[in-house]
């Protein structure tokens, strides 16, 4: 089985805690605060020693207590604004409310409901190799989707993509058309302001065909071509000769008989989730954190740098192409499914 190898380099963040003697128990949580219907996500790092809490909330230091199922802590940011969170822990979940300064009225405070989910701890034994089989795909780059997997620096994940129409390597439709993405992956150490470096090591098609279109997008159709372009729009099936690294139209004849092109596998989609205040991004669009870039340099050996805008980055991949030119003038490249792996350091 062929795999694609991607390597992601993250910035390490340090936490400082008082010397309490025995090592405290560490837990990581993903907090969702509801700000008048707007979701704001924060990373909560707790260091628990008995009933005493330390750690950080959104990168700011916190102090508090955890007694039974009841948790209470306060956190003060660099501007001196203090929020107090009261919650109830049930298993791997937490619910409660946050008491914070009113952003529009000095001296007043407001309450926001919040929920939180405990992230899995880093397994002992060093970096892992994780085989991940997607069971759902995303048609938006969004912070509101639950992470499919939590990874740490040094881990390697091996997985696969479907094509832009949602079809897998067996020809079975698994997702809605429109560049469905695998993810999001939560990168445990990534925080807003970091840069995520994705080093593409290996990327391979995992089936023997690709689909394209004999058309031109409207903005590429000049007046002189408009009449002829009206006759276009038919799907074209390409055969992928993976052993020799070539692709050729499956039913080509006449002047195209024997025509073939070299394979150059690439990813059309790669992005992290947009930051607070930004709406989810369609997997057909691009933004500051990446997206449906359809940039034919997302190939083996190259590095993509993405600005982290949410805790955990929330990284997505998809829309694999066996080959693409310098743009998708037909709206399609050679759309196919892929297998790949990536390692985070």
User: What's the helical proportion of residues?
Assistant: under 10%
Global Rg = 24 Å
Structural class: mainly beta
CATH C-level name of the largest domain: Mainly Beta
Could you spell the SSE succession in H and E letters? EEEEEEEEEEEEEEEEEHEEEEEEEEEE
Reported for the largest beta sheet, the result is:
8 strands, antiparallel, barrel
Strand content: over 45%
Kindly report the name of the CATH homologous superfamily of the largest domain: Acetamidase/Formamidase-like domains
Looking at the overall shape, the CATH architecture of the largest domain is: Sandwich
- CATH fold description of the largest domain: Jelly Rolls
Number of domains: 2
Shape call: elongated
Task: Give the rounded overall mean pLDDT.
Answer: 88
Supply the number of helical segments.
1
- How would you write the strand order of the largest sheet? 2-3-4-5-6-7-8-9
Instruction: Please count the beta strands (DSSP E, at least 2 residues each).
Output: 27
Low-pLDDT stretches: 1-20
Distance between the termini: 24 Å
If you had to describe this structure to a student in words, what would you say it looks like?
- Helices cover 2% and strands 46% of the residues.
- The chain is mostly beta strands and 345 residues long.
- The chain has two domains: 15-118, Lipocalin; 121-207 and 262-344, Jelly Rolls (Sandwich), CATH 2.60.120.
- A hairpin with a 2-residue loop joins strand 23 and strand 24 (290-292).
- The longest helix is centred in the middle third of the chain and has 7 residues, at 223-229.
- The model is unreliable at 1-20 (pLDDT under 50).
């Amino acid at each position: 089985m062929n795999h694609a190898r991607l390597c992601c380099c993250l910035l390490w963040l340090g936490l400082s805690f008082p010397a309490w003697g025995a090592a405290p128990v560490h837990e990581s949580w993903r907090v969702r605060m509801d700000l008048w219907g707007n979701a704001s996500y924060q990373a909560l790092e707790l260091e628990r020693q008995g009933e005493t809490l330390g750690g950080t909330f959104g990168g700011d230091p916190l102090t508090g207590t955890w007694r039974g199922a009841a948790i209470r802590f306060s956190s003060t940011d660099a501007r001196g604004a203090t929020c107090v969170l009261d919650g109830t822990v049930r298993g791997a979940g937490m619910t409660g409310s946050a008491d914070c300064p009113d952003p529009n009225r000095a001296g007043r405070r407001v309450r926001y409901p919040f929920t939180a989910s405990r992230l899995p701890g880093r397994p002992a034994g060093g970096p892992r190799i994780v085989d991940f089989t997607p069971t759902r795909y995303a048609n938006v780059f969004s912070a509101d989707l639950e992470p499919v997997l939590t990874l740490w620096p040094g881990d390697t994940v091996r997985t696969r993509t479907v094509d832009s129409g949602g079809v897998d390597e067996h020809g079975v439709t698994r997702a809605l058309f429109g560049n469905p993405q695998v993810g999001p992956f939560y990168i445990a150490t990534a925080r807003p302001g970091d840069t995520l470096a994705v080093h593409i090591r290996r990327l391979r098609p995992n089936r023997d065909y690709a689909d394209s279109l004999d058309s031109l997008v409207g903005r590429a159709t000049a007046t002189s071509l408009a009449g002829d372009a009206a006759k276009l729009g038919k799907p074209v099936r390409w055969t992928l000769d993976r052993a020799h690294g070539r692709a050729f139209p499956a039913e080509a004849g006449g002047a195209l008989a024997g025509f073939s092109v070299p394979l150059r596998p690439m990813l059309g989609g790669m992005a992290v989730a947009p930051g607070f205040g930004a709406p989810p991004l369609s997997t057909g669009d691009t933004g500051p954190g990446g997206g449906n870039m359809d940039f034919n340099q997302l190939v083996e050996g190259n590095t993509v740098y993405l600005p982290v805008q949410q805790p955990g980055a929330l990284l997505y991949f998809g829309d694999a192409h066996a080959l693409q030119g310098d743009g998708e003038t037909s709206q399609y490249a050679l759309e196919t499914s892929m297998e790949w792996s990536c390692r985070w350091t």
